[in-house]
Design a protein that fits this description.
mainly alpha; globular
Length: 204
């Protein structure tokens, strides 16, 4: 928006200012969930366009960033819905990412943890981890090998707090499919984080 237009209507939306003040935050938010730079850029652009169109309904209720993030969340959900309609997923997605090596295949302790893969005591609270930027960089690296929909299901549940029913609607899956996907994601992420964060050399 030009300075002349701004002078005529100081309450008009200013997309350029939104980009300057919130663009980096919105992009990081989207990239963490979508794991694709082009897709993250697209949903942020869609968010800003939708915000311009809906600005009359905003009326300053709550912070501007919170309002923009709310729109961005809807755009990310729309992306997941489109991707799920286009994807040809296996009947029970996640079985092909099973990590069977984590468990004993036979004997008295069948299906119990193999000693070398057993969960370790992380000796850290979730609140403390949130404050550590390096942890989240490693967390993102650990997400990388996960199939797209498995990672999406995990993030929607554990980061965004959606219910099982909401996730199943967004990803067009059944609840038993979701349980398998979340189980596989948690196994992989726990093992990866233990190797690359909690058990790395020099880490207490």
């Amino acid at each position: 928006m030009s300075q002349e237009q701004r002078a005529k209507d100081p309450q008009a939306p200013d997309a350029e200012r939104w980009v300057d003040e919130h663009g980096d935050y919105l992009y990081r938010y989207a990239l963490f969930r979508l794991r694709d730079t082009a897709q993250a850029e697209d949903v942020v652009q869609e968010t800003l366009l939708a915000a311009l169109q809906a600005y009359a309904n905003y009326m300053g209720r709550g912070s501007e960033r919170t309002w923009l993030v709310g729109i961005l969340k809807h755009k990310i959900m729309d992306h997941f819905r489109r991707a799920s309609r286009e994807a040809q997923a296996p009947a029970v997605e996640g079985e092909e990412f099973a990590h069977e090596e984590f468990f004993r295949p036979a004997g008295e302790w069948a299906e119990h943890w193999q000693t070398e893969y057993a969960p370790a005591d992380w000796q850290a609270s979730p609140a403390a981890l949130v404050e550590q930027g390096e942890f989240w960089m490693i967390f993102q690296d650990c997400l990388g090998p996960l199939p797209e929909r498995i990672a999406s299901a995990f993030l929607l549940r554990e980061v965004d707090g959606l219910t099982s029913e909401e996730i199943c609607e967004v990803l067009s899956i059944k609840v038993n499919n979701l349980w398998v996907m979340l189980h596989r994601a948690r196994l992989h992420l726990r093992h990866c984080l233990e190797l690359n964060w909690f058990k790395r050399p020099g880490k207490v």
